[in-house]
Specification:
The structure is a homodimer of 217-residue chains. Chain A contains 8 helices and 4 strands. The first copy, chain A, has 217 residues and is of the alpha+beta class. Chain A has 2 domains: 3-85 and 198-211, Glutaredoxin; 91-196, Glutathione S-transferase Yfyf (Class Pi), Chain A, domain 2, CATH 1.20.1050. In chain A, a hairpin with a 2-residue loop joins strand 3 and strand 4. In chain A, helix 1 (21-30) packs across helix 8 (197-211). The relative contact order of chain A is 0.15. At the A-B interface, strand 4, helix 3, helix 4 and helix 5 of A face strand 4, helix 3, helix 4 and helix 5 of B.
């Protein structure tokens, strides 16, 4: 069955790979599954057709036969459960890898997202400049604890897993701010993720779309 | 094997059930698993002993034999996968229920958490009052879309699932602000969750701890 995901027709980051379809592309590349991409123009994100596949009007989504999923975490988990390569076989190790998936999306990403919101949604507000250090310090608190846990390990818990895929993806979002480089162990961890051939292919695929000419019309 | 979870010795909400151990207690009650609770004093949250079970120094955690988990989403998923009652049997329906788990924690909760942060961590900042409506509007955007998707259905996708358990838990956090009542379908959905006997037992259990006398010392 053909797998079809959705992505921005033009990512707001211009192809830096920070849009969430990159995470799903990466997972698909890690497990060796081919996929097709349906591009969603910005103005169509909150229209009924797209809301019927993604109730919050975002990307990515995942369609395969009569299954439609949204939420990056859920899509990555679905792929990880169905194909070898992203979750350990041992039941306890698997539960711990799933824990890191949730940790990436529920604990580490929210303060990082808050920085994007502070810059892009509240950048013109009178409090923008004064509030920025407060938001950055919340990120530092999380990264300090994450770095302590990772220590000198290659990945968060044994072999590379879907938990690392999501954690590296989340940390990539904080890289442009310079904050990641305050944590050398985490910066090296992210670099190890970026160096994986599957990530390289995923990144190249989204870059090609974001630098291609837009369809006329 | 005995299941042991952790909870605040004293929840910051004084027993309103908004601390995340309530979510795990609720899941345990839904699947009929007995459990023990280890209370963590506030000053011990970021100490090495607790950080060894929860790298971010939060509650709840889950211990069962040689398995240790953190992250509410992961703990609820672990229980839902091992015991009947929280995930459908059909593989596609199951993947969709997992999608709602991630949607609750990754998409709906972050703006709601931002409101808590605005009130409790930034309440004394000069921008606190002016920024509040901006934060509230971001919650409204999400709740508008969630309410549209739920419509008049009883639960998000078929029978009550771990996705509903987490979504109701997340929405309960916005109830005290009055925002939930702007969305009558969601308020009714939350009320259906609260009316479940398993939720009632979970709520009572956390309330008992939060209103019991503190140990001397």
């Amino acid at each position: 069955m053909t797998i079809t995901i959705t992505a921005f027709e033009r990512s707001p980051d211009g192809g830096k790979g920070l849009a969430r379809d990159t995470r799903v592309r990466w997972a698909l590349e890690e497990v060796g599954q081919p996929y097709e991409v349906r591009l969603v123009p910005h103005q169509a994100m909150k229209e009924p057709a797209h809301l019927s596949v993604h109730p919050f009007g975002q990307i990515p989504t995942y369609e395969e036969g009569d299954l439609t999923l949204f939420e990056t975490g859920s899509i990555v988990f679905h792929l990880a459960q169905r194909h070898p390569g992203l979750l350990p076989k041992d039941a306890n190790a698997r539960a711990r890898a799933v824990t890191w998936m949730f940790a990436a999306l529920s604990t580490v990403e929210p303060p990082i997202l808050d920085l994007s919101i502070a810059k892009f949604q509240e950048g013109d507000k009178p409090w923008a400049q004064d509030r920025l250090p407060v938001v950055q310090d919340r990120i530092r608190q999380k990264l300090t604890l994450l770095s302590a846990r990772l220590g000198d390990a290659e990945w968060l818990d044994g072999d590379f897993s879907a938990g690392d895929l999501l954690m590296v993806s989340v940390l990539l979002r904080v890289k442009p701010s310079g904050l990641l480089n305050e944590f050398p162990k985490l910066a090296a961890y992210v670099a190890r993720g970026e160096a994986r051939p599957a990530y390289q292919r995923a990144f190249a695929a989204q870059l090609a779309i974001n630098t291609a000419p837009l369809p006329a019309g």
